[in-house]
Design a protein that fits this description.
Elements: E1 6-8, H1 12-15, E2 26-31, E3 37-41, E4 47-49, H2 61-64, H3 66-83, H4 91-106, H5 109-125, H6 137-157, E5 160-165, E6 175-176, E7 181-183, E8 191-192, E9 201-202, E10 206-210, E11 215-220, H7 225-233, H8 235-242, E12 246-249, H9 252-273, H10 275-280, H11 300-313
Antiparallel strand pairs: 1-4, 2-3, 2-12, 5-11, 6-12, 7-10, 8-9, 10-11
């Protein structure tokens, strides 16, 4: 059997839940940079050429690793949507679902881009003295997935699980190309290194994945139900904030309105950290504006700590 060339980083079976046609084959999406609204067959979106192959002729984990994870996880998701409840899931269904969410947290191209960006920042900060790459950026990305899925599955198993069902079409969920929302309740952050220090495993308080326009699957540490519901209602805003390029939805208006809200959120953020920039560039509330990836800068003390970390990671 030949290896597929185009690898889907969001399984087609999940995207079909957001399709707008009765055959569940077409989906609306928006380019968050240009604002262009588009529609396409699901087979042509959320994919990248040879994303899960180690090298041009090397092994590929697209089927060997993700095959069962996707099939079993989607079966559990279908049960939730069909029964509008978690009560009909078996213990094995719940385990399959945790593994599916864990994989989805790591498998997106944004994780690889994060690794490459962090490597560039480290090289600039230390004049090329250190590198966080063990093999190659792509190999390290794939190794982090294979190792990290087990760790995240274990972390998810220690959290409570619920599903939010919003019947109101005005509150339908959208899904982005970085679809798993990860939040902390406060400022705390506990992490451990995965294959690379650029891709740490973080024990998030709140982890959520939209599984259809009406259902949001949530894993959480103890919190008041009202706080959880508020976080669920913020899903669409966070999908825009986390996404790299594209967001997908059954309804085009949710995408266009969501992008307008995203511009407002970005404006408020820039206003809080650098209001002079807005004035100098005559940017008004509601204008198109995005927040770029931060570039890391290190104080001397931070450099010493980072040298110690990188030295340990290289052993």
């Amino acid at each position: 059997m030949s290896t597929p060339k185009k690898h889907h980083f969001i399984p087609k079976g999940l995207l079909r839940n957001f399709a707008f046609d009765k055959n569940r084959k077409k989906i609306n999406f928006i380019d968050k940079h240009s604002g262009e609204l588009l529609s396409s067959s699901i087979g042509k979106v959320a994919r990248q050429h040879f994303l899960y192959r180690y090298s041009e002729k090397g092994p590929c984990i697209e089927k060997s690793f993700f095959g069962d994870i996707d099939n079993l996880g989607l079966t559990a998701i279908d049960k939730i949507i069909d029964k509008c409840s978690l009560a009909f899931l078996s213990p094995q269904d719940k385990k399959n679902l945790m593994r599916f969410v864990a994989a989805q947290m790591l498998r997106v191209p944004a994780t690889l881009k994060q690794l490459e960006g962090f490597e560039e920042d480290i090289r600039l900060a230390f004049d090329g003295e250190y590198s966080i790459i063990k093999d190659s950026p792509h190999s390290d990305f794939l190794n982090s997935i294979v190792k990290g899925v087990d760790i995240y599955e274990s972390l998810l198993s220690k959290k409570s699980m619920t599903v939010f069902y919003f019947r109101d079409p005005d509150k339908n969920f959208i899904i982005g190309d970085v679809p798993v929302i990860q939040r902390q309740y406060g400022l705390k952050s506990t992490s451990q290194l995965s294959h690379s220090p650029a891709i740490p495993i973080v024990d998030w308080d709140f982890i959520a994945l939209p599984i259809s326009p009406n259902f949001l699957l949530v894993y959480y540490n103890d919190a008041p139900q009202d706080e959880l519901k508020l976080l669920a209602l913020e899903n669409n805003n966070w999908q825009f904030i986390q996404s790299e390029d594209f967001l997908y939805s059954r309804n085009q208006s949710h995408l266009s309105e969501g992008l307008k809200d995203h511009y407002k959120i970005c404006y408020r953020y820039v206003q809080s950290v650098n209001p002079v920039y807005l004035k100098q560039n005559s940017i008004k509330f509601g204008d198109r504006i995005e927040v770029a990836r931060p570039i890391l800068a290190f104080s001397e003390n931070a450099k010493q700590q980072m040298r110690s970390l990188l030295s340990q990671a290289s052993k």
